[in-house]
Amino acid sequence: MKLNGRIWIEESDKFIGIGRVELLELIKKTGSINKAAQTMNMSYKKAWGLVNSMNEQSSKPLVLTQTGGEKGGGATITDEAQRLIDAYKEIQERFKKFLSDETSKLHR
Amino acid sequence: MKLNGRIWIEESDKFIGIGRVELLELIKKTGSINKAAQTMNMSYKKAWGLVNSMNEQSSKPLVLTQTGGEKGGGATITDEAQRLIDAYKEIQERFKKFLSDETSKLHR
Description:
Oligomer: homodimer
CATH class of chain A: Mainly Alpha
Low-confidence stretches of chain A: none
Shape of chain A: elongated
CATH topology of chain A: Arc Repressor Mutant, subunit A
Number of strands of chain A: 4
Largest sheet of chain A: 2 strands, antiparallel
Number of helices of chain A: 4
Strand content of chain A: 15-25%
Radius of gyration of chain A: 16 Å
Distance between the termini of chain A: 11 Å
Order of helices and strands of chain A: EEHHHEEH
Structural class of chain A: alpha+beta
CATH superfamily of chain A: Winged helix-like DNA-binding domain superfamily/Winged helix DNA-binding domain
Number of domains of chain A: 1
């Protein structure tokens, strides 16, 4: 037997979970919501929906988009987004430890 | 901001989570899978599916059903099921503390 689980940060509603953190990191890496969506096998529409939802729920913007240019501009993440990514990952590490400690106890 | 999450015990697959624990407790309380399902606003069919799935995944049976009698007999849970319920609830308490501690850290 093994304990498993998921955690997420809520604002009014579900706000940042593991999928959205991955999306933000890929936007940072690729400079593009489209490329990030492709890497995650996610539709362009869904990725934009998630970005809009995150930007609306957050008190400060998380993803900035630039329009114009040959391919419609790119996207960057803000310092606030980076802060959230870092916080989520630190918590996720402690959560993994919690799950592994509790799994050991289950076997005793 | 608030940290929230869900945990479950896995065997080969997802095995016991908060919904299944509630179902087992209601079977214990009402002596009937039907009554337990009704209390949870769950269909008879879904509750039986969950019970069968739990019994199949577990090395020891968790729910015993009796056939016969006017209303088709009742259901009881085994000591093994009670042990799992207790383990899940203890872990859930520690998980709540984890979530609340991490929520406090988010606000610092």
